[in-house]
Structures are given as structure tokens and as C-alpha cells.
Amino acid sequence: MTGPDPATLHPLPHHRRLVFLRNLITRPTIEVGDYTYYDDFEDPANFERNVLYHFDFIGDRLIIGNFCALASGVKFIMNGGNHETTPVSTFPFAIFGHGWEAAMNGQSVAEKYPSKGDTVVGHDVWIGHEATIMPGIRIGNGAVVAAKAVVTRPVPAYAVVAGNPATVVRYRFGPDTIARLEKLAWWFWPAEKITRHLALLTAADVAALEQAE
Q: 14, 15, 83, 123: which one is catalytic?
């Protein structure tokens, strides 16, 4: 036994609202790692509906790592929700055509509308109920995003953030331990090794984990 098959849609057979998310994704601009799960109070298909303003012509991606836990109602605001703020009006005239496309002034979409790049969630990240992640945010490995937080700035590895806008409440470990865990990168271990060392992964003895073979 080496744990559940990451290709399984419903790893808990009697809980149909929880899915290994990668197996539910249909959009090529969303990438999800192994074992990352999403639990939705109504329907896990809501996940892609909650990736908002995600237009193919913009080209930004949502990238989520391995072993993440995403609670019901998590929302990702993508770059398609951005408007210009430098001109007099923020209204997107060009998208409506009928002569208003002239508002592009020969610019490409990338030049005309602001983009903050891909949204990237690291490995072993826990995102709480109804948290909202804004465009182009990067969330570090091992971080925790509290319920209903609105994340507008990058989240450091192993930080716990809460509030609107989300701020760092504390760190799960000290700087030295965080550096060691980042180097260890257990989320890339093969399933067999993870299975052998579950006791260490669910404890707090980093030194012992570093010796695991």
C-alpha cells in the first residue's frame, strides 16, 4: 500500500464533494499537482467556476502544487478582471467593438490591459473557506491562508496569513527550519517513500525527516 491513487477523482468513496482536483480540471490554463484536493459544500465542479475572469486570450495561468488542501468557496481572481486606471475612464470600450475597438490604439491586449502574470500556489498549501486570491499572487510552500482572507500580496513560505488585505499573522516555523524544509521538498518524494515516513511527516522532527531514506 502506497497511499491513494492520485489519478482517482474521489479518493474518499463516500464523500463525493471532495476530489483530487487535477482530475477535474478541463482548462489548459489551470495546472494542479498530485494529491491536491478541493472540498466543496455543493459541487466540486464549482472550482473552475470560481477561477474568475480567466480568459484564454490573456494567457495567464493558475498553477497549484502538490499536496494542497483547498476549502469550499476558494476564489481566484485572474488578470481578465483588471482594468486600466491611468486613462480618464476605466471602462473597457474596445471589447465591445462597433467602432469602439479603435480604443486599442494599435496596442495588443497585453499592452492595453494590465497583467500581473501567473497565479502560483506552492506545495503543501492550505487555503481556507472562501478565501480570495488576487491576480498574479505567489503563495509559498507550506503556507496557510485563513478563511475569508483576501490575498493581495505574495505569501512567504510557511507563513500564516489572515484578513483583508491578508497579512502575516505568524510563521509555522523559524527561518532555519523553513530553509531546511524548502531544501527537503518532501512533496516531490515518490509515494513509496512518503508512505514509509508518514510518522515523520505528521510530526515536527525535521532532523529525523532529513535522515529519511
A: 83
